[in-house]
Design a protein that fits this description.
This protein has 265 residues and is an all-alpha fold. The protein has two domains: 37 residues; 214 residues, MetI-like fold, CATH 1.10.3720. Helices cover 79% and strands 0% of the residues. Helix 4 runs antiparallel to helix 5, helix 4 packs antiparallel against helix 10 and helix 5 packs across helix 7. The protein is globular and about 70 Å long.
């Protein structure tokens, strides 16, 4: 039996080289940032930032309060996007001409117009008519917008299934609804989880546009603090870091779920 030690040791060179290259790239980036900050002539005041995250009374500061609203908005909009996306995907795959046309019009209208304009239209035109508050309007707008992309992800996952799965479901006497629920969709989830994770990351970032309709989420709270304190770079860098933490956590969660749901082909 061959000794694995030479093979393992042979990997040390490339790993060390890659590590050094990565360290050099990080060092170069940090040098550029430091050089740019020095030439900017900006009076950095990072010591004032923690009070906007956690107050001296150990309560959530305005940035954490805004992050809580962002998480709530993301969770509700994510559920709404899944519902809208699944409905549109099933209509696209149905035998109804009217259903396919409706789903197609919805997708083209939503994906080919900016999210900001959609939110403003819903808030200033539709919301006063049906009595929606700002949070409900934001959830509806984000759900419809993200749902248009989710529908294509789900449709691709459904059509990628082996046609034999449909034959097996019909041979067991299942209706179309039961076949989708018990056979097709559970298997499609394994294939669409990675793109759905990417879409959820986009949803977190797109939720910042809800600040345009006075939703007190993270971006609006950061903007208000900057207007009061003029700590432009410190606050916006902190806001970006909080978004990065949320999106990284979502990516790790999706990767963990993908590993648990995966099975050998």
């Amino acid at each position: 039996m061959p000794d694995p030690k030479p093979a393992a040791s042979s990997l040390g060179g490339p790993v060390l080289r890659d590590g050094l290259l990565f360290a050099l790239a990080v060092a170069g980036f940090l040098w550029l940032v430091a050089r740019g900050a020095a030439t900017l002539g900006y009076n950095w005041q990072w010591y004032r930032v923690p009070a906007f995250v956690i107050t001296p009374e150990n309560t959530a500061g305005p940035l954490l309060q805004g992050l809580e609203v962002t998480l709530k908005l993301t969770a509700l909009s994510g559920l709404g996007a899944l519902c809208c996306g699944l409905a549109a995907a099933l209509l696209r795959l149905s035998g109804s001409v009217a259903g396919r046309a409706l789903a197609r019009c919805y997708m083209e209208a939503v994906r080919n117009t900016p999210l900001l304009i959609q939110l403003l239209f819903l808030y200033f035109v539709l919301a006063p008519v049906i009595g929606m508050d700002a949070l409900t309007t934001a959830v509806l707008g984000l759900s419809l917008f993200e749902g248009a992309y989710v529908s294509e992800i789900l449709r691709a996952g459904i059509v990628s299934q082996d046609p034999g799965q449909w034959d097996a479901a019909r041979s067991l006497g299942m209706s179309t609804f039961s076949a989708y629920r018990l056979v097709i969709l559970p298997q499609a989830v394994r294939h669409v989880l990675p793109p759905l994770a990417s879409q959820s990351v986009s949803l977190v970032k797109d939720s910042s546009l809800a600040s345009a309709i006075a939703i007190g989420e993270l971006t609006l709270r950061g903007s208000s603090i900057v207007a009061e304190t003029f700590l432009s770079f410190e606050i916006w860098f902190t806001v970006a870091a909080l978004y990065w933490l949320v999106t990284t956590a979502l990516s790790i969660l999706a990767s963990t779920l993908e590993q648990r749901l995966s099975y050998p082909a």
